[in-house]
Write a structure and sequence with these properties.
Elements: H1 2-6, E1 40-42, E2 49-51, H2 54-59, E3 74-82, E4 86-92, E5 103-107, E6 111-120, E7 123-124, E8 133-138, E9 151-154, E10 166-171, E11 179-180, E12 186-189, E13 192-205, E14 212-215, E15 219-220, E16 225-232
Antiparallel strand pairs: 1-2, 3-4, 3-9, 4-8, 5-6, 5-9, 6-7, 6-8, 10-16, 11-15, 12-13, 13-14, 13-16
Function: This protein promotes the GTP-dependent binding of aminoacyl-tRNA to the A-site of ribosomes during protein biosynthesis.
Domain GTP-eEF1A C-terminal: 166-242
Family: Belongs to the TRAFAC class translation factor GTPase superfamily. Classic translation factor GTPase family. EF-Tu/EF-1A subfamily.
Length: 242
């Protein structure tokens, strides 16, 4: 309980279920090998739940709300050319809704086109919501124009854009030697994989509180956290963190 509390959860809302995966105890049906276990209970404002097995505890989890009301963002994982259909970008909807007929823009290349159809697991969808891994067919765009790391959005509702530079909080977990201005590591951001230059290390901060500990440090090293201005070597689509 103390650990659950320490990592930010309310122990009363967490099911504690003793199981043996090897023997199948309390997985699907109540075990006869644990007479001391009277069952688990969870209390939360939405609805209380109780049961004995792991599967009941899984069934009692409330599904998260999907960010459908936010602007559409779909980072491309791949782009395929499918005979008889055409160009099919593939990726997971992160926010918003993708529907056939939507006029999408691919950032940062700023290519605009209409979505002809949306499919998931070879079935046509009327709409794709956050969490859906989909392929969608686009008009008049060749496979060569699109690539992994681009982000699709609705051209009419706060479309995504490339960033010339951005400010990031960087935590150095493990690095031999020191990192100073000019260091250019490869950044993996959503599905993009692009080298970004440390243009300016603005300040060192405390990892936990985020408070500034040193302005304009000459370098940072393992264990440090810093606010850094990064400049991507190629256009990169990033969003401000809220």
């Amino acid at each position: 309980s103390s650990y659950i509390k320490k990592i930010g959860y309310n122990p009363a809302a967490v099911a504690f279920v003793p199981i043996s995966g090897w023997h199948g105890d309390n997985m699907l049906e109540p075990s006869t090998n644990m007479p001391w276990f009277k069952g688990w209970k969870i209390e939360r404002k939405e609805a209380n739940a109780e049961g004995k097995t792991l599967i009941e505890a899984l069934d009692a989890i409330l599904p998260p709300s999907r960010p459908t009301e936010k602007p559409l963002r779909l980072p491309l994982q791949d782009v395929y050319k499918i005979g008889g259909i055409g160009t099919v970008p593939v990726g997971r909807v992160e926010t918003g809704i993708l529907k056939p007929g939507t006029v999408v823009v691919f950032a940062p290349a700023n290519i605009t086109t209409e979505v002809k159809s949306v499919e998931m697991h070879h079935e046509a969808l009327a709409e794709a919501v956050p969490g859906d891994n989909v392929g969608f067919n686009v008009k008049n765009v060749s496979v060569k124009e699109l690539r992994r790391g681009y982000v699709a959005g609705d051209s009419k509702a706060s479309p995504p854009k490339g960033a010339a530079d951005f400010t990031a909080q960087v935590i150095v977990l493990n690095h031999p030697g020191q990192i100073s201005n000019g260091y250019t590591p490869v950044l993996d951001c959503h599905t993009a994989h692009i080298a970004c230059k440390f243009a300016e290390i603005k300040e060192k901060v405390d990892r936990r509180s985020g408070k500034t500990t040193e302005e304009n440090p000459k370098f940072i090293k393992s264990g440090d956290a810093a606010i850094v201005n990064l400049v991507p070597s190629k256009p990169l689509c990033v969003e401000s963190f809220q």
